[in-house]
Amino acid sequence: SQELEQSPQSLIVQEGKNLTINCTSSKTLYGLYWYKQKYGEGLIFLMMLQKGGEEKSHEKITAKLDEKKQQSSLHITASQPSHAGIYLCGADLEYGNKLVFGAGTILRVKS
Amino acid sequence: GAGVSQSPSNKVTEKGKDVELRCDPISGHTALYWYRQRLGQGLEFLIYFQGNSAPDKSGLPSDRFSAERTGESVSTLTIQRTQQEDSAVYLCASSLAARNYGYTFGSGTRLTVV
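Structure tokens for the assembled complex are given below, as produced in the milestone run.
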């Protein structure tokens, strides 16, 4: 969806390095979701952010929501090969309807 | 069930044939969504159900695509006269309500039209 822009499109990092993926909306965000997908599999829910300034962490993954900038970032600390996959952001852009998704960020972690 | 179940997991069909894809949402989830993901691309919204009604069908790409939901449970996505460009992974998601309650995705049906 052009309503949600993800960057970068792909990323290769050395194991142990930190990385950040960004998701920017052209419209007001009512909720922002991060999912991870491995090739040929469904989406694994990571985090949901609803309030401006909200920050959530799970293991080595942290996501933040900047409501004013209509932007969210996903940060992985000390990346591991298990973090490799496609990261997708999805957003509620209008009331009571559907999630629209960004095009995804392909992450590869080199050992 | 514990999660969203989709069947079949893989489907190969000949161009021009009709296919039916099934989604079993989490019990009690009133909202159900279908998405399509082409190779190397993000998720493309197809249709949304609230109960058995579909208030948003805006993503269905052509009149060859249709979907229904019965008993506020199972949904079927039907593609008639399949074309090669229909090849994709079709993902289903369900949610407790329409918004902000979290969306759980199934593993998808990989459709290949040959």
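Chain B touches chain A at residues 33, 35, 41-45, 48, 55-56, 89, 91, 93, 98-100, 102-108, 110 (CB under 8 Å). Chain B has no helices and eleven strands. Further analysis is deferred to the final report.
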